[in-house]
Each structure stands twice: as structure tokens, then as C-alpha cells.
Amino acid sequence: MKALSLKRRHPLAVLALLLMGLLLTGGLYTLATSVNQAKAETTTYSAEDVEQGEKLFIANCATCHGMGASGSKDGPSLVGVGAASVDFQVGTGRMPLQAQGPQAPQKPQQFNAEQTKQLAAYVASLGAGPSVPAAEFLDGKGDAAEGGELFRVNCAMCHNAAAAGGALTQGKFAPSLAGVTPEHIYEAMITGPQNMPVFNDANITPEQKRNIITFLQTIEANGSPGGNDLGALGPVSEGLFVWIAGLGLVIAFTIWLTSRTS
Amino acid sequence: MGNHSDDHPAKPEGTSEVEAKAGQTVLDKFENPGLPPHRPRLADTEPRAAKRAERQVVVLFLISVIGTLLFFFAYFGVHLDQSIGALRLQNMLLGLGTAFAMLGIGTGIVHWAKTLMPDHEVSEERHELRSEADRQDAVEIADTIIEEAGIKRRPLIRNTLIGAIALAPLPAIVMFRDLDLNPDVNKLRHTMWKEGTRLVKDPTGTPIKAADVTIGSAFHVIPEGLNELEEGKLNEKAKAVVLLMRLNPDELHPSPGREDWGYNGIVAYSKICTHVGCPVALYEQQTHHLLCPCHQSTFDLTQECKVIFGPAKRPLPQLPIKVDAEGYLVAQSDFHEPVGPSYWERG
């Protein structure tokens, strides 16, 4: 083992690593029961991207995800998760994970767009998985009405009917979708980050995903039609309103009831 | 020893004397303040103010009447077309009408009591319990109240009060009348699912191939043919909706007799919470918990949707599924138990 590690800077080491990766990928692919059809790559990655991505990966991700992204007890294997997952997790700052907890929170990105692309290129080279979505599905020019119906059936129970987000169990939560880029919304649907279920292309077609994105942009642009939406959070903000305004009214009545008449 | 017992009775006597003296000096300065002087109100001295207060009370009672009428106008008069605006308008008018109906009576009575009813102070001495004489007294007190409230002298107040109180409960009666008083319980027992019904996607109605359901996926499912229903579509949907998920088969622990209710890790469970019937659709694909957003009932998918937290009493009913010749998911049968909350006849 020591002899092997001494040779890790050998010019052929990269080739050997690639070969190992390929073998691992092929083996896992045949084993996997998953039949999710990987779409044709919409973003092309150069060998340079993969190489740079691997360097970034080893420096930043390998501690948890293991060398060769094969996973460890601290992080899952990334073989076959695809470029979309990397673009979402790294692009929204969720990865690298800041601290262990019920859920990876969004934070300022640690990698720029170029580095994110390189990391995605590297992970995509490990095994087939959902790729970064094509721009045609992200233009927000779909059918907002159909998107709204799909959103209410598939998404609203966690993300709130107005996409304002909501609580899950034991400290987990579904984030607000306001201000999230179309690319990240699309990627979240196909990859199912954290506890979100996966909505593959057989469940919600790319065209339907485009409609959902259109709906989200529509409600964000149009605001609340019924006046102030109190944050659209539902019972929390409305309850606060009742505590302040409603109890204020009750107190006013109490003062009136007990005051002397002139 | 003897000394001690001799001293003993003297000691408490001395201390109690000291205490009593100290207490008396404090009590000497405390006087019964009695009742504060009676201050007549404007309406007691000026007949014009009394007349104005009377009119105000009448107006408040009339507001209550108008509120009730507004409720009925909104309930029957607002035409609910397909637009959301009409529904909003009706909701607002129903709410405002009920609020005015109740507040009008309440504020009217309080205003009446504060301005017109006698406000002189009455003190009553505590006395022995009597029976016959007490009854007589009670009748007298009631008579005094009626006399002092001036309900006989002010017929306008009396009439508007009777009107407002007679009208105010009518909205409740109308709304309860519209509830189904004689439900057919068997409707709750069965859903649209039967052997061979295809599982299709909500809302598009596209059938689902088993191969399309990848691990970690959640599909929102309705029975095939639901979208084509002419009548009662929403009622049928409210009973038949199903959530379809795929897990690693190793994570499922089916009980004996239910091993073949899923297919290759794909399982389908009723989406209707067994607590009060909200759609349980918050699926956490890592913990395999299903959460109901209303009262936080949590079901564990790996244990046949057993309740692990919250007020729900029963596990979610499972829909037995299989795959037909073309690879599409179909139901094996209807649910084996009624879906949704408990009810008396469920047994």
C-alpha cells in the first residue's frame, strides 16, 4: 500500500485513476436498479475541466466523500449523482457543508461559477447522472397555469402554496423559492437534494418543469392580489397578526367596558 | 426541668400581648372608606342626552339587523361564477355580515347598560338562608331589573333588540341546514380503486410505468378515469388520492400477508390523513417519514406508515399494487380498510 501511495505522482497515475473510476462506474451501473435515463449532455465539459475539477475535489470534498468520490461514513458516494446535483449543491453554497445538522443550509457560495462547472465536470465524469438543464427549459416562457396546477399537486405541501417555504420534521425545512434561479429549481427537481423527493423526467417532463418555473416567476412578479400577504407563511405570520391586532381589539373593548360614562 | 416547665406558659402570653398591641396601632388608622359619592351621568340629568343615547343603542341594534341581512345577501345573492373574485367577495361579505350582526348586539347592550340603565350603587348585607322569602325576593329583584332597565319605557330599544336577537342565529341555522344530514356511510367505505385500475399521474392522467419510478421519487397519483368523471369528481378524488414512492426494498418491512402489496420497492399509500383527512404529502426521501402539514402527524413509510408522532390514530391505508403486462402500475384491489379519519360506523 505504501509503495502504491509513493507512486501517486507518477504520470500514469491519472490514467490508472480514470480506469478505476470507469470500472467502478460500469460495475455500479449494471448493479443499479435505477432506470433513470440520463439525458444527453447539454453542457460540454473539456478534459481540462475534469482535471481541474478533480483537483478541487481532492482539496475540498474528498475528506467526506472519499477519494474518487466513492463515499465514506461522513458523506455519500457521488458516483452517478450527475452534474446537476453538483451545480445545485455547490452553486447554492449548500456544499461544502458548513456543519453537520438536520439539513444543509444555503450560504454564500464557496466556489465561483467556473470552479463549480469544473467540479460538476469531474463528478459527471464518474458516472452517468442528471446533467445541468438546457437553457430552453429555463426561459420562464412556459404555461404558468399548468405550472401552477403541477406546483399545487407536487410541491405546495412542502414549499407552501405561495412558494414561501415551510417546516418539516425535526429541524428540517422546505426553503422559500423566492429568488431561486430557474436553473437551481430545475436541478432540485431532478436530483432531490436533501429530503426533497426526486421528480424525474418521467414524473414531471422537462416541458412541465419549464411550466412550473414559469409559474414561480409569475407569482413572484405579480405579488399578492389580495393586499398585504403577511409574508404568505400561513399560520405563523397570520397568528402573529391576530395576537397583535386581535388582542389589541380585545383590550380596547375591555377598556370601554370598564370605563365610566360621562 | 421544673424551672423550664414553669416558664413555658408565661412566654407565649407575653409575646401575644406584644403582637396584639402592635396590630392595634396599625388597625386604628384604617377606616372603612364606604361607597364613593354617586356621580350622575349626563343621561341621568339631561333628557336630551338620554334620548340621544337611546337612539345610539337603536342604531347599534339596527346595525346588527343589517349585518344579518348582509350575510343572507352574500349567501344567496352573490353569484359564484368561475372567477376567484366572486368567491373572495362572498367570503368577505359573509364575514363582515356575521361580525356586524354579533358586534351590533354586543356593543348595543353594553352602551345601553352604560348610559341608560341605572348605575346607582347597591350594597346587600349577608343574611341567613331562607326558602320561601328568598324566592319572593328573587321575583322582586327580577321585577326591579326589568323596571330599572327601562325596557317597558323604551319600546324602540326593546323592539330593535328583539329583532336583532331573532335574526342573529339564522345564519347558523341556514348553514347547518346545508350540511348533509343523512349521509350514506357506505360512500366512505369504498374508493374508485379496483383490480386492474391503472395508477395515473395527478393532474395529467398519464399512466405510470414501474420503470419510471426511480428510487427517491414521489408520484402523486389518482385512479385512471377520475379525470373523465362528470359528477362528484372532487369527492372521489378526495378519497382515492395516493402517494407513490420507491425505496430500497431492504428498507421496507412488510408484515406477513402484505409482502406482495408493493413492487420492487414501489409502494402506494393513501394520501388522506387518518386524523382529520388532510393530504399527507410531505415526503422526506432520506428519513422516509410522511408528514401531515396540519397537525404534524408523522408516518413511517418503512413501518407500513405507522404513526410515529402526532394525533393520528391509525396508519395510512396501503393500496396493493402490481404491474400489468405492459409494465404499467395497476391496483390489485381497493384499499382493504376505509381511508381517512375514523367515524362511528367504521367499526
From TrEMBL, chain A:
Residues 48-127, 142-220 form the Cytochrome c domain. Heme c 2 binds at C155, C158, H159. This is Cytochrome bc1 complex cytochrome c subunit. The cytochrome bc1 complex is composed of a cytochrome b (QcrB), the Rieske iron-sulfur protein (QcrA) and a diheme cytochrome c (QcrC) subunit. It is found in: Cell membrane. GO terms for cellular component: plasma membrane. The keyword Cell membrane applies. One of its GO terms (molecular function) is iron ion binding. It holds the Pfam family Cytochrome_CBB3. It comes from Psychromicrobium lacuslunae. The chain crosses the membrane at residues 240-258. PROSITE patterns: CYTC. Heme c 1 binds at C61, C64, H65. Keywords: Cell membrane, Electron transport, Heme, Iron, Lyase, Membrane, Metal-binding, Repeat, Respiratory chain, Translocase, Transmembrane, Transmembrane helix, Transport. The keyword Chloroplast does not apply. Binds 2 heme c groups covalently per subunit. The lineage of its organism: Bacteria, Bacillati, Actinomycetota, Actinomycetes, Micrococcales. Its EC number is 7.1.1.8. Its main location: membrane. It is an enzyme of class 7 (translocase). It catalyses: a quinol + 2 Fe(III)-[cytochrome c](out) = a quinone + 2 Fe(II)-[cytochrome c](out) + 2 H(+)(out). It is a multi-pass membrane protein.
TrEMBL record, chain B:
It is a multi-pass membrane protein. GO terms for cellular component: plasma membrane. It holds the Pfam family QcrA_N. It is found in: Cell membrane. Its main location: membrane. The chain crosses the membrane at residues 57-80, 92-113, 156-176. GO terms for molecular function: 2 iron, 2 sulfur cluster binding; metal ion binding; monooxygenase activity; oxidoreductase activity, acting on paired donors, with incorporation or reduction of molecular oxygen. Residues 1-11 have a biased composition (Basic and acidic residues). The keyword Phosphoprotein does not apply. Keywords: 2Fe-2S, Cell membrane, Disulfide bond, Electron transport, Iron, Iron-sulfur, Membrane, Metal-binding, Oxidoreductase, Respiratory chain, Transmembrane, Transmembrane helix, Transport. Residues 1-48 are annotated as: Disordered. Residues 266-330 form the Rieske domain. Iron-sulfur subunit of the cytochrome bc1 complex, an essential component of the respiratory electron transport chain required for ATP synthesis. The bc1 complex catalyzes the oxidation of menaquinol and the reduction of cytochrome c in the respiratory chain. The bc1 complex operates through a Q-cycle mechanism that couples electron transfer to generation of the proton gradient that drives ATP synthesis. Belongs to the Rieske iron-sulfur protein family. PANTHER family: CYTOCHROME B-C1 COMPLEX SUBUNIT RIESKE, MITOCHONDRIAL. This is Cytochrome bc1 complex Rieske iron-sulfur subunit. It comes from Psychromicrobium lacuslunae.
